[in-house]
């Protein structure tokens, strides 16, 4: 059972407790377990709050001297796992009764009107589900056509009854935590009666999408930390950014993310959870270009201390260090300059003693002693003349590179038939002969370069923590795509070509 409940671990928040305490008593007829657990929802996760180690005759008591966070809690036992949800709000002295014969349906709350309404809401849907199941039984023996018609008519009646029920309950619970829970759960879709007359289905779909997006956060109070401890907030945030906003690109995510963070009071628990959610999701995002969101968060919240009190100083240093590496490599940035040397001049440099130098001091001494000879050998990245430059960092010993580099030869030759392209293949290590022999054996007819004098610090400059690492640059050496398998290079160049023609 404990494995199903996880503790939020990606950052530490200190719960603010006040004196007062709590006492939650649950009496369940026919309950046979000797142990029960109290747990709560916490922004997409669940974790234990208390344990009753001595359940006596179905009576469970949780008691503590400190107040619990307000929100949605639930009872757990060894046999059935999750048993039922309830609201813990202003009243922290709660008393529930039920019967294992039908636990959910028999739930009663003594002294908490809000929880009694909460349980009644659940019972309504249990009744409707039961009634609908009975309807299906009545269709047995009917023809398919009659069965479909019968069910369709009843579904319409059921839907109308549910809609009215939801409307009435929402109105009755307005201003209460249960009402906020209902609002968080509800989808804000435009009603058919409110739809304007539009020319075609595409326009109608576009209108519905915009209505849904524009009303998505209606009535959701980001000043209320209780919403963190519900089943729905993280799901809603995920849906909004993954399904509605992400498809529009990183700039749209940044705009919408800033709006959400602005709705959260500064330094509130809500702000901290939302901020960490964005940091975790966009630090190593799977979609190309979305590292821009992470850099924005660092520049606008970490550096400015708007997100203070979340991370310790060492963590902040690491976050800023990572952002500083990523920022020059964002799509739309000019690729950092590289001063590299080819295989022919590599032989000459090695004879100077660079290949046997053991320390950074000896390399530095060799460099300054031979600087005038070395400087003319450099082939700067910026000197490559091509409409597109494929810049790839790789290593002879890298298994993935051994798969990708021969593929790149084929991709390169095909691309050359269609557009002006060059491949700059940068070897990231120093084993010259092994590299040179591999180039010859695999016929890698690229612009093959490396850094035998250790002047570029390219692993840090290009954030190379694994190989191969690929960038596509335009004629100005602006990064237009990155971090893709080589077989995706033609597709991404084609997309850029179409975009260029459109603009």
Would you mind describing this structure in some detail?
The protein has 503 residues and is an alpha+beta fold. The chain has 3 domains: 2-110, Immunoglobulin-like, CATH 2.60.40; 197-329; 339-502, Glutaredoxin (3-Layer(aba) Sandwich), CATH 3.40.30.10. Helices cover 43% and strands 18% of the residues. It has helices at residues 113-138, 144-172, 177-185, 201-214, 233-245, 250-263, 269-283, 291-302, 313-326, 343-351, 360-374, 399-416, 432-441, 458-461, 489-502, and strands at residues 19-29, 36-42, 45-52, 59-66, 71-77, 81-88, 93-99, 108-109, 339-342, 379-380, 388-394, 421-427, 447-450, 469-473, 479-482. Strands 10-9-13-12-11-14-15 form a 7-stranded mixed beta sheet. Strands 4-1-7-8 form a 4-stranded mixed beta sheet. A hairpin with a 2-residue loop joins strand 2 (36-42) and strand 3 (45-52). Helix 6 packs antiparallel against helix 7, helix 6 packs parallel to helix 8 (291-302) and helix 8 (291-302) packs across helix 9 (313-326).
What is the annotated CATH architecture of the largest domain? 3-Layer(aba) Sandwich
Class by SSE composition: alpha+beta
- How many beta-strand segments? 15
| Oligomer kind | single chain
**Percentage of residues in helical conformation:** 40-55%
Query: What is the H level of CATH, i.e. the homologous superfamily of the largest domain?
Result: Glutaredoxin
Sheet with most strands: 7 strands, mixed
Number of alpha- plus pi-helical segments: 15
């Amino acid at each position: 059972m404990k494995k199903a409940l996880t503790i939020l671990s990606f950052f530490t928040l200190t719960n603010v407790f006040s004196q007062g305490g709590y006492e939650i008593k649950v009496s369940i007829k026919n309950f046979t377990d000797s142990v029960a657990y109290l747990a709560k929802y916490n922004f997409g996760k669940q974790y234990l709050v208390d344990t009753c180690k001595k359940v006596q005759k179905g009576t469970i008591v949780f008691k503590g001297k400190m107040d619990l966070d307000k929100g949605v809690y639930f009872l757990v036992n060894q046999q059935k796992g999750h048993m039922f949800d309830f609201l813990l709000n202003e009243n922290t002295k709660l008393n529930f009764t039920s019967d294992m014969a039908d636990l959910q349906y028999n739930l009663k709350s003594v002294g908490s009107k809000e929880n009694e309404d909460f349980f009644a809401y659940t019972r309504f849907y249990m009744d409707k589900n039961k009634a609908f199941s009975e309807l299906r039984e009545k269709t047995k023996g009917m023809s398919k056509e009659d069965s479909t018609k019968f069910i369709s008519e009843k579904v319409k009646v059921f839907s109308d009854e549910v809609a009215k029920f939801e409307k009435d309950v929402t109105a009755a619970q307005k201003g209460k935590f249960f009402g906020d829970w209902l609002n968080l759960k509800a989808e804000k879709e435009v009603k058919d009666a409110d739809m304007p007359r539009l020319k075609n289905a595409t326009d109608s779909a576009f209108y519905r999408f915009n209505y849904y997006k524009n009303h998505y956060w209606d009535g959701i109070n980001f000043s209320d930390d209780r919403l963190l401890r519900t089943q729905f907030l993280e799901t809603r945030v995920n849906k909004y950014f993954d399904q509605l906003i992400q498809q529009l690109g990183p700039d749209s995510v940044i705009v919408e993310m800033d709006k959400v963070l602005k709705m959260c009071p500064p330094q509130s628990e809500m702000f901290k959870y939302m901020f960490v959610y964005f940091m975790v999701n966009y630090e190593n995002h799977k979609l190309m270009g979305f590292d821009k969101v992470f850099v924005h968060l660092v520049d606008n919240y970490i550096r400015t201390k708007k997100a203070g009190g979340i991370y310790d100083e060492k963590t902040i240093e690491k976050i800023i260090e990572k952002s500083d590496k990523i920022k020059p490599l964002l799509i739309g940035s000019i690729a950092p300059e590289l001063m590299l040397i080819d295989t022919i001049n590599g032989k000459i440099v090695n004879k100077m003693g660079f290949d046997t130098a053991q320390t950074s001091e000896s390399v530095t001494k060799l460099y300054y002693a031979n600087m005038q000879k070395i400087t003319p050998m450099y082939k700067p990245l910026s000197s490559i003349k091509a409409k597109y430059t494929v810049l790839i960092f790789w290593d002879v010993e890298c298994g993935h590179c051994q798969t990708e580099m021969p593929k790149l030869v084929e991709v390169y030759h095909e691309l050359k038939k269609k557009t002006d392209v060059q491949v700059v293949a940068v070897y990231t290590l120093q084993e010259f002969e092994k590299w040179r022999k591999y180039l010859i054996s695999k016929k890698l007819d690229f612009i093959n370069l490396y850094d035998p004098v250790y002047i570029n610090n390219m692993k840090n400059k290009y954030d190379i923590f694994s190989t191969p690492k690929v960038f596509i640059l335009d004629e100005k050496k602006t990064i237009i795509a990155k971090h893709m398998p080589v077989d995706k290079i033609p597709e991404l160049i084609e997309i850029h070509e179409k975009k260029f023609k459109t603009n």
